[in-house]
Amino acid sequence: MNDLQQLLTSIRQGNKAAFEALYEDLKKPLYTVILRITRTPMLAEDILQDVFVKIYLEPPATTINPRAYLYRMAYNLAIDSLRKHRACVDLEEAETTIYSKFDDSCNKIDLERAFCALTEKERSIVTLHINGALKFREVAAIMEMPLGTVLWTYQKAIRKLQNLLEGAI
Question: Which domains does the chain have, with CATH numbers?
Fold first, then answer.
């Protein structure tokens, strides 16, 4: 049994410290995945809260890959929210909200602009793989796409990012 499965087992038994440990471990990567999909910081925070409330109230049963399960939950909630809101973030708002704390804000802004040029599907695949640390087959399962399509889309998105960032950073 891996650490994540042990944490979920402890959470099912009412261990609040295990929930806090899970939250601390996954809040940043889950938030990043959700933010890349929604492109709205406040909405991403709300969805992240929904993910952890669901985990707290009804921790998932032992699954083959609990990490992929949690990312799938975050991904699905983000996509559902997008379908409801179809909001687009103002780039100036995103720059001040997300990057005001960072010294290398220019690089982060360039990267965010490049990510905005990707399609929703491309952003999701890149983010789930890189920020979510999920294997391509797990990304394919979450997005309900063939593995070959995920691999091709990922490579295409990375090439697109490289071309967009060439000279920007």
Answer: 3-165 (1.10.1740.10)
